[in-house]
Amino acid sequence: xxxxxxxxxxxxxxxxxxxxxxxxxxxxxxxxxxxxxxxxxxxxxxxxxxxxxxxxxxxxxxxxxxxxxxxxxxxxxxxxxxxxxxxxxxxxxxxxxxxxxxxxxxxxxxxxxxxxxxxxxxxxxxxxxxxxxxxxxxxxxxxxxxxxxxxxxxxxxxxxxxxxxxxxxxxxxxxxxxxxxxxxxxxxxxxxxxxxxxxxxxxxxxxxxxxxxxxxxxxxxxxxxxxxxxxxxxxxxxxxxxxxxxxxxxxxxxxxxxxxxxxxxxxxxxxxxxxxxxxxxxxxxxxxxxxxxxxxxxxxxxxxxxxxxxxxxxxxxxxxxxxxxxxxxxxxxxxxxxxxxxxxxxxxxxxxxxxxxxxxxxxxxxxxxxxxxxxxxxxxxxxxxxxxxxxxxxxxxxxxxxxxxxxxxxxxxxxxxxxxxxxxxxxxxxxxxxxxxxxxxxxxxxxxxxxxxxxxxxxxxxxxxxxxxxxxxxxxxxxxxxxxxxxxxxxxxxxxxxxxxxxxxxxxxxxxxxxxxxxxxxxxxxxxxxxxxxxxxxxxxxxxxxxxxxxxxxxxxxxxxxxxxxxxxxxxxxxxxxxxxxxxxxxxxxxxxxxxxxxxxxxxxxxxxxxxxxxxxxxxxxxxxxxxxxxxxxxxxxxxxxxxxxxxxxxxxxxxxxxxxxxxxxxxxxxxxxxxxxxxxxxxxxxxxxxxxxxxxxxxxxxxxxxxxxxxxxxxxxxxxxxxxxxxxxxxxxxxxxxxxxxxxxxxxxxxxxxxxxxxxxxxxxxxxxxxxxxxxxxxxxxxxxxxxxxxxxxxxxxxxxxxxxxxxxxxxxxxxxxxxxxxxxxxxxxxxxxxxxxxxxxxxxxxxxxxxxxxxxxxxxxxxxxxxxxxxxxxxxxxxxxxxxxxxxxxxxxxxxxxxxxxxxxxxxxxxxxxxxxxxxxxxxxxxxxxxxxxxxxxxxxxxxxxxxxxxxxxxxxxxxxxxxxxxxxxxxxxxxxxxxxxxxxxxxxxxxxxxxxxxxxxxxxxxxxxxxxxxxxxxxxxxxxxxxxxxxxxxxxxxxxxxxx
Length: 1047
Fold this sequence. Notes:
Low-confidence stretches: 258-269, 551-568, 726-735
Number of helices: 51
Strand content: 5-15%
Oligomer: single chain
CATH architecture of the largest domain: Orthogonal Bundle
Strand order of the largest sheet: 7-8-9-6-10
Helix content: 55-70%
Mean pLDDT: 82
Radius of gyration: 37 Å
């Protein structure tokens, strides 16, 4: 039996059902015995408590009657003549003869004593756990129901004081672990409730100091001193004065970085039928060096058990650690959630990754995480259920798999191979290319393992073949006793055996998440607390749930309300996600939405992360008025994700917000337009360029409908990022896009004019004469109002000057660009332009350090466009220096940098492959690679000539050279164009074409033009025109020799 006084007086029988302990006075007798336990309580004390205004003559007989009835309740099978074994008689009174572990109050005192011992011994981590578990015993106010009884008032005060003391002890241990940031809200509330309680005030000041708020900490102590002196005439305690002095001295010991002693997972039972797989994982975790193991399989196949068993083996090595991070399937989890859980456990630090690492950028945060992991020594991190991982978590996994900063790290990651979405598929493809990454796929158990399982569980081993065919050897279905198709029926049978309300309780828990906090569940459900607890206890007995005591950081996505430790520390975990899936899918749509709405309303009052609130409000849309809240929290979640450098996650939240604008009771076009522009920005930073265009198309249309010039300008500018210009991805833009930008320009204020002029100059470069576009860029420079718009204008001018402007003009542009960078991305663009200039001068050795910086910085910034452009510049360098195999490899790397692939990146990779094939004499194979861009038309023309299809080649060339290469003017300095054009002019001996092209190339004499030496191209044209080309050839050879290019 279990006896509870820390809440309503309750006795739980052996079957888990609360016993009927009678009316108020009879319950008072039991309460008095419990409070005195294990000491006896005298009859006089009981009488005084029951009749404070004087006992009746029959008082002693009445007490004896209560005792007799309580004995029958507590020992229903005891004979009348048998001696009482629970509520026994002692000299002068009665006592409860029960083990300490059966009384919640005695469990509390035992845990507090153990916590104090551990804290004194320096084990703050285990001490904090003991104190928090002690707090979890309270189920509300102690002695609930006895508030108006005089005898109980003093006892309630004493128990409230005990509770507050345990809170103080827990805070003492948490502060020793450096968890002050998390404690601040609760401690500030405690100070307000107990302003003259010095220990509480000391803890609050200490927590504020650990949170980086030294001034607030000192102000709090000063306020306490004034209260003590003015109201009580007392000076602060010596310990308070000592703390104040240490804060003033910025004592480093006040902010410890004490790693929590991480307990290894308990030794796993033998895992049937998995000896080979377990051996592979054990070899991975026990071998020195960096390892990643990806464990795949269907739900219930045993992935988690396997990796936990392997992780447990790892902890047998000296200094080795094993921690776990589970991905969240409840919706709305913060970015990096599995990593947050793992690193909190590993380091003992609270907060999100940016806070744990104190990093100010994505790459610095990744590097800081690698250093933290490395500092912990040999470490195994288990990442469970990657199919639910957010994109940011997958990028961090990719980084830690490739970095050399944590050579002692082993990652064991599980995922359902039946639920691999696009982000995970991309991450797995990247990981599998690494030599230290291996994969393990789990299938069903073999028949001999099924037979052994049946024998151990009391079944018939001879039915192993039948059970194998029925369950596919899935351990979960073997344990459940049925197959996936019959899961719903099995669960209905189990639910029917549970107390009333079971379906409501468990369905609500399933919607909240894999791990359900009891306090949240109680608030969500409109059911009596005792009924909910009865259902949960029964569900644990039925092995549908597991009861767990969660440490505070487990539920950092949810806050706490007042002082309800039991509601915020006790929780439940589903035995398997399959159970959750069936419960959620069994809810009718309207009921599911209403329940999500209720969860959202409860979590909103608990300081929950905006992503989780956005998810529940979105899923809980019952009336249109709720859409506004869903949008607000989705937008907040996007800002939060951006602050954690999780740009793809931000884009997902904003996509939801845009969709939700259609659910608003009143159309808000301005809000929709703003959200579309924010979404386009997030997609651009994430490198998802193909998805940007339709978003901005709609933003422009909405801005047009609004007649809003500023929003139209912002939407139009989304099409014209200088990074995109540098990759030549917009230079085949349609006239419609040019018209939009020009229309925005006509109504734009001074703030936007310069940037719109720059965009018009670049995007319209092929729809108007080049001189006109260069004039627009010059005008943009003149009208720039800040460094950002000036750099954009200079970038446009620099790009348009390539291959057409004198050296002096380009030098002046580059000099101005170097002085106006606003941030690291701007600096990257400036350095890239300078690298291109050095390359055009053949100064490849000088450019190499800049190229290395570009690649390193692009990786640090984690911007796909930058990573891709840096790799592309490396490919061009390799091509010009004659290493075509390296050029092809670098171009492929540039294509892989784009998270969504796309035609542009593939085109660049295919171009290098085609050029290599042609150089190797296999022009026929190169012809099979084709793209619609104009540059490919020129290459196709040359390849057709190579394979003897001269007539087709001449026909294409005639179209290209028509009207003095009018269709090619903007492309004449582009990639392989000048080299191939001059080669074709020589092949066709076309003097007219040579005469038309010569002046366009002459401006770049003595330099690189496209990817060729300009003088070599000019020498070819001179030969066709009958001019002396010897000087040009000599100049070209000398240039190539100095640059290290093939002669």
